[in-house]
Design a protein that fits this description.
hydrolase; 20% helix; 35% strand; 5 strands; 5-stranded mixed β-sheet
Length: 112
């Protein structure tokens, strides 16, 4: 007996060719782990700059790093992939992420 797939298609039923990879998108992420005092924000800034993204990476009081990045869907996806990689400084335990519409509220990528 075979079961039907859980997901009928990519991106809520849209066909892959309908997905605009240049569509402006906003990533909001909270990075958990040993990510403060190890150059993580600087590393994130460098990756974001290479991808042409705008936004920020800031230390939060609870020891996490908050990342907001806006730009083309493909570039935002690449940054999220990098945040989840083994190449980050420190030790990333988990990345909680959310995607939404870009607001255009950033002129560049900054750290704080």
């Amino acid at each position: 007996m075979s079961l039907p797939p859980i997901h009928q298609g990519p991106s809520g039923g849209r066909r892959r060719e309908e997905l605009d990879l240049n569509e402006p998108l906003r990533l909001t992420a909270v990075v958990h782990g040993s990510v403060q005092g190890v150059g993580f924000r600087y590393w994130t800034w460098r990756h974001a700059e290479k991808l042409g993204l705008r936004g920020s990476a800031v230390n939060n009081a609870d020891g996490t790093v908050g990342v907001i990045a806006e730009g083309p869907r493909w570039a935002v996806g690449e940054l999220l992939k990098a945040l989840n990689s083994n190449d980050t400084p420190g030790a990333v335990m988990r990345v909680d992420s959310h995607f939404g519409a870009a607001t255009g509220g950033f002129a560049e990528f900054t750290t704080g």
